[in-house]
Design a protein that fits this description.
The protein has 546 residues and is an alpha/beta fold. The chain folds into 2 domains: 315 residues, Alkaline Phosphatase, subunit A, CATH 3.40.720; 108 residues, Gyrase A, domain 2, CATH 3.30.1360.150. It is built from 20 helices and 22 strands. Strands 6-9-8-7-12-1-13-20-2-21 form a 10-stranded mixed β-sheet, with helices on both faces. Strands 15-16-18-17 form a 4-stranded antiparallel β-sheet. Helix 4 runs parallel beside helix 7. The longest helix has 24 residues. The chain is globular, with a radius of gyration of 23 Å. The two termini are 43 Å apart. The relative contact order is 0.19.
Length: 546
Amino acid sequence: MLNRLQTLFILVFILSSFPVFSQQIPVNQSDQTRLVVVINVEQMRTDYISRFWNQFQQGGFRRLMNEGTVCSNTSMDLHIKKNITGVPTLFTGVYPARHGIVNDSWYDRLREKEVSALEDNYYITVGSDSEEGQISSANLLMPTIGDVLKLNSQNEAKVFSVALNASSAVLSAGHAADGAYWMDELTGHMISTSYFVDQFPDWARTFNDKRFADLYLDRDWTTLLPATSYTESLEDDYILEPGYYQKWNTFPYNLKKLKDRAGSYKVLKTTPFGNTMVKDFALALIEAERLGQDYVPDLLALNFSSMDYEQGSFSPNSVEIEDLYLRLDRNLEHLLNFLDQKVGRNRYLVVLSSACSTNYPVAYLKEEFNMPVGFVAPESMIALLKSFLNISYGQGEWVEFVTDQQIYLNRELIEKNGLELGDVQRKAASFINQFEGIKLSLPSVDFERGDYLKSQLATIADSYNLKRSGDVLFMLEDGWQPEYKFKRTIYTDNARVPLIWFGKGIQKRTTIKPVDGVDVVPTLLNLLGFDIPDYCIGKVIPEVSQ
């Protein structure tokens, strides 16, 4: 693993293509944006705002929509659509082919082992005795928007991130951030890693001493409004909704019982109160670290969770999701009012988007709408592939590693048997293509040669990293989902994400022109008056920058 000093050296080298402070802070410093808040609402569908509009208050989602610029046709078309791949894409302005985070883990062929995207034993947890802080963003190959601000301000800009999940906190913070904080599942405290923070700050320790996680979980989760108000949702006891532990799927929820069942504070991530804790911690951070209080623009990456891993247990049409967003609306209102008072109404800029959307469950689409969808069984498919390769090339461990929609072949065995890698890749891809529910399966050799300029190939190619991606990459048919025997499914084929701009220099308007998630970084830099690095593949959104 690279240590932090080596990583920062690499960042300086990457950004050396344009001079630091190539575009100075405006002469009229009082007119400069003081604080940028990038809000990532994990797994947020674009239709949630319109569906729940009548229940929202005036100061949250409605204020953002009524006073900001709405890019209503925004997509982030990743091959593997997860927060772990979406967050670095949103915050770097490049796809996984460039930033390198192709999944939660990948197979390192040189070391012949699985490599975690975040795990880094060189660093320790700060703020807790757990091992959750033994992580870093050293595997992130490109700078985030926060890193760019740091380099352009000679390290004067303050950069922080807050989240419930470690991956969102670390990958939105980047490399040079002053702090990345998330919730420790074992203690319920907000923690960090020594990659960013040498000593846990007193204000964060004071926040943890209030034990908000215990306060939230020592209660029932009841609906914010009367049950009859949830007209945009299915009935609370909808039969196709599994619920917690495939047992509890109706309000109220005894959160203490769920916590005891889980054996940790992880359940808080599936409730609206986890978002409230993130918001409250962010407010404490803004005040303690004095964000937005000078003429150098600071950055706060704020990551809200949307049911986290329980998305599959409660569909997008559930009362639980509606209640979560009604409460998130209140959190956003509190945040915006706080920024008005502490930073100044015309001195901050807010961007709200999502690093990953979600889709409807297969059972719901099939039973209620007779859609031609279903499940793909990856374990069975790979078992049959192994048998097929044994028949084709002789007995051997031809498949070395599998993760989501990527298959890593045993290249050493292929070479030992005098076979062409490309031929084996094509044969394996052709076999996978025969399965029902598979839209497209392709050998990686095609991407190495650049045969990916059009159509569906581009989706995989943008996420294909030569050193980290598999030998065979495949996509599922629309509406189909993987179903594993031994692990929880985290999957979506929905590339559409929300994108709202609000605050300093932003006009009220809506655009339906196609926008890519990687356009956020160059547009932000343009609004702040900085040059856009050559590596950014996104474009400045004219409707936002005008």
